[in-house]
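INFO  loader      accepted 1 record
INFO  loader      residues=295
INFO  predictor   begin
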Amino acid sequence: MNCKLCDSNNVKRIYNGKIRNGGLGKYSDENISIYQCGECEVIWHANCSMENIDYYESTKYRDSLEGSSDIEQFYRLHDKETMQKFMYTGTDIFRHKVIADIGCGGGSFLDFLSGVAQEIIAIEPTLAYRKIMKNKGYQAYAYAADAKNMWLDKVEVITSFDVIEHVESPLRFIEDAYELLKPGGEAIIGTPTDAPVMRQMLGEIYERKLLYSTQHLWILAEKNLKLLAEKAGFKKIEVKYFQRYGISNLLGWLKEERPCGEPKYSFVTDTLNEVWKSECGAKGLADYIVVYLYK
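INFO  predictor   done
INFO  writer      dumping tokens
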């Protein structure tokens, strides 16, 4: 088997077993093999193709992951993530700009930008959410490729968080972003890492119960993200790491051997959690990576 991103034959199977299938506590019926490339470091699983394109276009994905595709439920779950996304983007790049968010879901992040942006392009395969985006006055498309007829070389800022790991071709995903951007435009793309600290401390428990997912076709890393961006045509590429969970999350996993959020421990202060996050980010050991791509 050759790597699906860089075509190297330096590929190893690193896992074979049940993996997460949707929300926490749900697992695949069959064993699934997980592979990693020794050259570009990408991780993927054997079912690395979408059997049903309507999976994301219908409400099946949200129903499986979050138990509901109701828009108010989406807001309750995702509005609180907006401040974290502003940590990745800052707030000074959006005013009077043409903005596209790829995989915007119900539009929580875009709603916070609507007061400052010149134009908002909502790219979301789920038809029910896309209709809501149109009703809000956003330019709505199922896929980035669909937006190119109108917006080729016109978008000034593209954001996309927790999406690229779901797509069949990460290269095509980044190429579409490149083609939408005007010269001088910026794309900000975030995706979960392989959470190296959690894997080192918990091993297969963490991999099976959380990390490996039927819906995440890829686990990407700095090396392969830069490779893909360069192939797509980007010349200036920056990378930052962000730790989303504090040390209390790790301690909870070690105690319970399952996902338990960020439990409260009397000896873990907010300061300790913030120092943990800062150190993980600074050392490239964080659970989230964001690439900044400039056309």
